[in-house]
# Entry
Amino acid sequence: MKKLGFLLCAAILLASCSSSHNKKEKKDVTDYAKTITQSELKEMLYTYASDEFEGRETGEPGQKKAIEFIKKHYVDNKIPSPIADGDYFQDIPESYFNGRAKASENVLAFIKGSEKPDEVIVISAHLDHIGISSDGAINNGADDDGSGTVAILEIAEAFKIAEKDGNGPKRSILFLHVTGEEIGLFGSRYYTDVDPVFPLANTVANLNIDMIGRVDPKHENGDNYLYLIGSDKLSQELHEVSEAVNKKYVNLELDYTYNDENDPNRFYYRSDHYNFAKNNVPVIFYFNGTHADYHRPSDTPDKINYEFLETRTQLIFYTAWELANRDERVKVDLKTS
# Structure
């Protein structure tokens, strides 16, 4: 009897420990957001925006180094391509650029949705920059758009960690790095108008990241902020989701100055989200505003606010997570003509 009692107690204790262990291991979205860190963003950006990449001009050797850097990240993290096994490059022929660039590539990776794989959230950033100036100075493009590029890589890694834990997104996530933005949004237009790997009708939303690592003169008071453009243009529901996610998780100051229809800068039309919006895909464009180093060799990684970059990237991750996992896709209220 003593032996039986001992075994029974041991079994109860083991079950209790196992239950406690399982509770401890259970993770939620905040755990995955915390894997997005300023140290990793900084390490990647110091490479991606280094002189070695020669300003990443479309079709030039530095841009080819950039796409290999991006591909390696996905391969290392076992995040597949939606094009074909091991083929992460969407090739764009030289003829498409109308004499403005040599042949170039978009880079695509994705995580397949567990419940609604045919519905897709696209997270985009442009991988190119403006290359080398006539005086030989290299335009590193740390903010424009190295910041968006490394943000996507960290977001992708966070989603992959969640998938490994059995918490993969219900909808598919496409990580889309587009080329030729600086010379006319060529890469995103090629994806939307020529070769959409996922049908645009099944594309729930596009979250586009273009410059999120710096602070503009308007916001030099020290508080973290982000300009959001386009969130209510096609879907009021998308705007409301975005606002609710921000309030719940990070509470940044969301500035809609450039979302004004009368904005003289017309930023809504000047980054890659627009090629999705013109095809009736709801969009959010994340942007820190311009600064004195915009399109100059002085846009270097030492000037990035990595604490801000971390939180801004986490906000975009949280928003993508919500869009990917909510019961219904966000509704389109207004279609472009």
User: Anything to note?
Assistant: The chain has a mean pLDDT of 94.
